[in-house]
Amino acid sequence: xxxxxxxxxxxxxxDMVSTAYASTKESHPYIRSVCDAAEKGVKxxxxxxxxxxxxxxxxxxxxxxxxxxxxxxxxDKLGEKLPLLQKPVEQIISDxxxxxxxxxxxxxxxxxx
Length: 113
Prior knowledge:
Blueprint: H1 2-5, H2 8-27, H3 29-81, H4 89-112
Helix pairs in contact: 2-3
């Protein structure tokens, strides 16, 4: 999970969502109260679940470690094949706009000819 979270694409997307969430909470008092209640609920459920799941995790720890290692190797290979994962969202959006704009300009030139 931490390896996925550290991918540039994922971390920049999370940053964008976090910023939008915080901005929305700040500018809309009614939404803020709903979000605060939801956050408290999620925190309570997470704490309750963690205490129930901990004994099972202790038992399954060797299997979880093996699965984690396998997943890590798979993510490394995926990162090699998809360099897009190493770019921030803003750059991907900018590159896409540039690409589309270029293709539209090419199409206009072709039609004009």
